[in-house]
Amino acid sequence: MILQVTHDEDDLRFYAPAGEEEAELTYTLLEDGVLDLDYTYIPEEYRNQGLADQLVKAALDFVQAKNLRFVPSCPVVEAYAKRHPAYQRFMAEE
């Protein structure tokens, strides 16, 4: 299943329809262009199908396009960043 991911900057999340629910990756804004990617939710029946990766990729592509930085507070984001080293240069210093 390929998600049509939408970025809702007012609600601080990336989301996509998944059946009758939504898959989402939420974040908070920290200082000077740092997004704390903090929570990923995938509805039960859609888990283990790569949907979380699609949300994380959309978020990290946004970070990259806007020349921002991110904190991978969500374990899903942290694992994705480890598997895709090109995004690691956008990771904020801890």
From TrEMBL:
<dbReference type="InterPro" id="IPR016181">
    <property type="entry name" value="Acyl_CoA_acyltransferase"/>
</dbReference>
<dbReference type="InterPro" id="IPR031165">
    <property type="entry name" value="GNAT_YJDJ"/>
</dbReference>
<dbReference type="InterPro" id="IPR045057">
    <property type="entry name" value="Gcn5-rel_NAT"/>
</dbReference>
<feature type="domain" description="N-acetyltransferase">
    <location>
        <begin position="6"/>
        <end position="92"/>
    </location>
</feature>
<dbReference type="Pfam" id="PF14542">
    <property type="entry name" value="Acetyltransf_CG"/>
</dbReference>
<protein>
    <recommendedName>
        <fullName>N-acetyltransferase domain-containing protein</fullName>
    </recommendedName>
</protein>
